[in-house]
Amino acid sequence: MKQFQLQFVQEHQAGNTILISFLLRVIAELHSNQSNPATIGLANFNTGDFDFIPAQLGKRVSTATFLNIDFNKSYKKPSATHMPILLHTFSKHMVPHSTTQSQLNNILQTFNLFAKEKKVIVLVKAPVAIRQDFFALVKAYETLGVIDIIYLIVTDDDLSVVGMNMASTTLIRYNHSDKAQTLFPDRLANLSSRPYYVACYEDPPTTFKDKNNKTIGSAIALIDIIAKHQSTNARYFYTKNAETVFKHGQTTSIDLATYRFIRTIASPPYSLLQMSPMFHWCIAVPRQYRRILHEQVVWPFAIDLWVLAGGLVAFFALYQSVLARILATRCPTVYSIVNIPLQTLKILLLFLLSEYYTAILSSNLGLSQLPAYPKTLTEFYLTKLSIMYHHRRILTEIQSQISSRVVMVNTTQPYEPSQFAILQLCDRFRHTIGKTTKLYGKQTSHHQFHLIAEPIRSLLSLSPFRKSSPRFSRFQQYVSRLNEAGIGDYLWRQWNEKASDELSSGEEDTDEQNTSMLELDHFVPVFINGCYLYIVAFAVFIMEHAIHRIQQAFNN
């Protein structure tokens, strides 16, 4: 009975009455702005100062669900729930200053509020608000990245509302009649003078240095777009290789890193950002060619053109051997009119066909070699090529007809590029094939391999973002919207091409130059064509000689 009387007195104190009215109004406004049903978290309300609050809120806010946990006692961790609103009491029973941040970290972890936008309301009795522990609490919330927070300082007959300014740097006073939109403004819309600090390393086309030593890449372009939309910029810290940026229990000013990886540990010390495209593994097969010689002589002309040429040859052969003699003896007038135009037509047709034939044959010199390597997965299945790779964990959950061909790197035997296919990231093939083959034992360029652009395995690509950063949720929203609009894929393709131009080495330039130079074997079809012509000329000579002998025999 005595406890009930004490609670009744607490509820009807002027300050507590104003507090309950304020909480009901603000919670209703915040709750109405939620697109999905939300649970409201209550932390440490089992103390004597504010233990009547949960019951009052439960009675008067029927549309919300409340989860009350006393972190000073043993409790069962709740399942993952959407809790964008948190009410936290700070009383004289608060833990010592040394454990303030660890307890707040535990509260945010338990309510699953890290890497999410949240509204926090802290209730403080006036005598406690002047203690050093209270200022440690404010500093701890700031360190943990909680920027949408207000502190309600309650006296027996009044209520004071204190919160952060727009830049989240100092405490300012609000009126307890202010709307929730005033108490919790959008502090992430304008980050002027508060840049992003980004760690990156040489990883083309995501991030790399250009010839002017400027950090560029697809991730840089994407981050710059987001930073500009938030009225700020980004500062990049570039290293040759990836470094450990985020560690448990260690603070850092770095907001995010452009590193791409596959999630491997259960509880990483950072939030997982989906910024880059997915990892797609493709098969790169060595380029092999089959020489064709005699077929190329026939290819320049289509079948119907060869029929026309053959018909003209037969006609002029018939005319020269039979019709011309008949016309000359029986119709000399017609012969004199027809013969010269026909001879002119023969010369003209011979000139046109030979010139076109020579031109087409010269332009198709490269066709003396036909690709003999598979261009699709279906064609690859018909070959006996083995696939070389060095990370066995990537090979899980792939087709058996692929996994059965995978061989690991054998350091005891020399690596021969022409005998093995290689697993490569589809979008980084041109930039990583040289390093991969060098790792296997013999460096080659992308000119010596063909990438089958049909992924055999796809995995989610993740990047680390500081766990305590309040910018994570908004940044992820921007990235998702840019990817939905196709801008992310566009930047990736654009910088993939630019990286190829920027990072082209002298060796690759030499290889490309060599592939474009004419060599002696390119002219083998020309030599064969010449032989054919000589053979035809010799046959015509024999035929004309035979016809001449036959005509002499008839005349005699």
From TrEMBL:
Entry annotated with the keyword Ligase: no
Keywords, in A-Z order: Cell membrane, Glycoprotein, Membrane, Receptor, Transmembrane, Transmembrane helix
Compartments where located: Cell membrane
CC per GO annotation: plasma membrane
UniProt superkingdom: Eukaryota
Protein name in the entry: Ionotropic glutamate receptor C-terminal domain-containing protein
Primary subcellular site in the record, as a coarse category: membrane
Residues that span the membrane, as ranges: 297-319, 523-543
Span of the signal peptide: none
PANTHER family membership: IONOTROPIC RECEPTOR 20A-RELATED (PTHR42643)
UniProt xrefs under SUPFAM superfamilies: Periplasmic binding protein-like II (SSF53850)
InterPro entries to which the protein is assigned, alphabetical: Insect_Ionotropic_Sensory_Rcpt (IPR052192)
